[in-house]
Design goal:
The protein is an alpha+beta fold. The protein contains 12 helices and 14 strands. GO terms for molecular function: UFM1 ligase activity.
């Protein structure tokens, strides 16, 4: 093998390979820079020697690892990640195991693909999320939604889900999705029944008893509008009350009569 100004024999290359193997057998890893310093060779040449003459090794940038060394860390990563009950960042986990982040990710991805580690690696955030955490999170959210009939985005964010809109739209497809909140179909069934009863009984219903406090006037009006399409009722007080039109007219007539009587009393008292 020739270099600028010198020639390296094949026997010398074999000697370099054996030296590398001895170091690798003892430590499990080494770096191209260390080898190049020992033999006074360029890192490029050392890299070529490793690629062409060494097997059962894994090269990551400047570092070379033996398969045995990586197998040991696979076992450590498997044990570490299996014991997790919550998300962990890659930098924290790799530092805990004293392993380079790139190698940690490489080994973890392989373990996830093989099914030896249950979870997902969120590359964009550098976080590993164990499946048990996701399952517990989903179960908790589902129970909350079923018991309360709604769930707010803020609640979802506090549980560590960065995109509550996407999560809730995917998980609760039948729910009503408005800005900042999801309301269950069963909750709407109750609301519709209350509105229908108020309309049929010529009465009114207070939606504050059925809707979460975070629902604003705009959202309330938009969500409730389909229930009063027939024109037999209307909204009052920022769409927080649904009032039967006949009941409303009756109340207005009574108020007008009261006002008229009051005015007559005032007039008589002046006279």
């Amino acid at each position: 093998m020739g270099l600028t100004g010198e020639v390296i024999t094949y026997s010398y290359i074999i000697r370099v390979v054996r030296e590398i193997q001895d170091v690798m057998e003892e430590r499990g890893f080494t770096t191209l820079i260390d080898i190049s310093r020992i033999f006074d060779l360029s890192t490029h040449l050392v890299s070529n020697i490793v690629d062409k003459h060494m097997c059962n090794v894994h090269k990551d940038s400047d570092t070379i690892y033996t398969d045995v060394y990586l197998d040991e860390f696979r076992a450590k990563i498997r044990g570490y990640c299996t014991a997790l009950i919550g998300p962990v960042t890659v930098n924290v986990a790799s530092a805990k195991l004293n392993l380079a982040e790139r190698i940690f990710i490489f080994l973890l991805e392989g373990l996830i693909i093989s099914g030896e580690v249950m979870g997902s690696l969120v590359a964009s955030e550098g976080v590993f999320v164990p499946s048990c955490f996701v399952h517990a999170q989903d179960t908790y959210i589902t129970k909350f939604f079923e018991q309360n009939g709604y769930v707010e985005w803020g609640f979802i964010k506090r549980l560590g889900i960065s995109d509550p809109r996407l999560y809730l739209q995917t998980k609760f497809k039948e729910a009503s999705h408005s800005e900042g909140i999801r309301i269950s179909e069963s909750q709407f069934v109750q609301i519709k029944a209350a509105i229908d009863e108020a309309i049929s009984d010529s009465s009114w219903v207070d939606l504050n008893f059925y809707l979460p406090v975070s629902v604003n006037q705009k959202d309330s009006g938009a969500m409730m509008a389909p229930f009063i399409k027939g024109g037999d009722a209307c909204f009052l007080q920022n769409a927080m009350y649904v009032v039967n039109n006949e009941f409303k007219k009756h109340c207005i007539c009574k108020l007008e009569l009261i006002n008229m009587n009051k005015a007559e009393e005032e007039a008589r008292s002046i006279d």
